[in-house]
Design a protein that fits this description.
The protein is α/β, with parallel strands linked by helices. The protein has a single domain, classed as Ribonuclease Z/Hydroxyacylglutathione hydrolase-like (Metallo-beta-lactamase, Chain A, 4-Layer Sandwich), CATH 3.60.15.10. 35% of the residues lie in helices and 20% in strands. It contains 9 helices and 12 strands. The strands form 2 sheets. The protein has a 7-stranded mixed sheet with strand order 1-2-3-4-5-6-7. A 5-stranded mixed sheet has the order 8-9-10-11-12, with no helix packed on it. Helix 5 packs across helix 6 and helix 7 packs antiparallel against helix 9. The radius of gyration is 19 Å and the shape is globular. Bound molecules: zinc ion. The site of zinc ion (ZN) has 5 residues, from loops.
Length: 306
Amino acid sequence: MKRQTGAMLLTMFVLAALVIPGAFAQESPRPAGLGEATAKAATPFKMFDNLYYVGLDFVCAYVIQTNDGLIMVDTLFDTFWDTPAKGMQALGLNPANVKYIIITHAHDDHYAGLKKFKATYAPNARVMMSEADWALMESTLQRQGAEAIAGKGVPRDMIIKDGDELKLGTTTVKMYITPGHTDGALSLVYNVTDGGRTYQAFNWAGPTLQSPEIPVMEKFLASTRRIQGLAKDSQVWLHSHPWSVSFFQKYEKLAARKAGEPNPFVNPAEIPVFLQGRVTDTEKRIADAKARPAGAPQRGNRGGAN
Ligand SMILES: [Zn+2]
């Protein structure tokens, strides 16, 4: 009996690995050729009654609808600065109603469209970022020079601290600083509704390691362990890139959904599997790095921050 249970668990484990891309690899496999250079706008769509997707095939942008305006999460990179607004308009949302823009972390595929979006559609929107990532954005733009600052730089506005809550209308977005991917990468927790039911969504915006440095890997590991607790009651698992959470497979199921069928974005089982995969992999990377003789080459990342 015991052996059978073990075998059954092993089978479930293997099946989970097969059906959840990215669950066991630090760098979630992305479709061949998909990157900033080939990125295309995805069809904008309604994920939940109060959550919309207005991003690309490569990187996410979301809109949370409240009864007192819109909250935008990430603004894509410069080339696609207008895509979220066009998506909102196609979905019957007015980008002028964006009251807050949360930038999940300061890699330019998430913030570089901000300045033009804000100037064009929502000049009064408040911009929120962690202090570490405001600083990262500013230093990145500084390094890129005056032209980058003129095109992408926005003055420092609201600083998010760990555990802060953004309240708009009756909606609350809880925000945690979960360092690793960047020092100030955010995790967001908020409720979504579907057909009269409420679910807790968890957006871990920095779910990949970008550095082989031991202190950074240790930060990432600590954040991952913390998220295992923070996300324990969540049912919807979101990231800042769609490939790491089978996003478009879920989208296709949602598009084909018949009345009464569940929303495919509600999938609590994938959360602990994904997180444990990250813990195991990061522990191994740290152990490997510590075992490496001084001066030996490090196991690097794919290169290029996203
Ligand atoms: Zn990133």
